[in-house]
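seq as requested:
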Amino acid sequence: MYKFRAIIKSLIIAFFFSAFMVFIIGTFFGVQVQRGLSILNTISIKLNNAENVEIHFDKIEKRLTQKPSWGSHIGRLVIPSISVDIPIYQGDSKLQLVDGAGHHAGSYFPGEGGSILLAAHNSRGLFYTLPQIQNGDIVTMEMTYGTFQYEVYKTNIADYRNIEAFPIQKEEEYLMLYTCYPVDNIWYVNDRFIVFAKLVGDQV
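struct tokens:
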């Protein structure tokens, strides 16, 4: 009985010590850990994402004649007001998100007249500054077939499991950007910071 109690006591002490160490690391070294992970991810993506591909767009039908392959580099996302200038990849799996924004395959492409969904990690150099965006800010998607500008009109915070927070529709063209929230958390979280921007100009 004594040995059993000693084991339980040791396990409890080990648990609280581990929790304390995780708290200390997250509080004082969170930024450094995040930067390190970003560097490792940047190295790995070079091996997995295809080079920039030409996308053919039908101006009359307002649709892509052929969808880009998964993982291909399809453009750039530029938001001067929050110092964002990153590549856009087709797909939003781990391989696409490590050094750029990923285009959700179930959403529309710029120029097609529907909602577009892009995700990126809450890392510095990616969407770490996304919560600083303001209504009226301009977001530009520089695709291989044209340039599209969107004006921010609202932001929201929602659980990623709430699909209604990321509406995919064909009635009007607008862009949704999202990342994990709060952005300074290096652990897994359920909330997402979402930006909504409407189309205000294009050059196809």
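The chain is about 25% helix and 30% strand.
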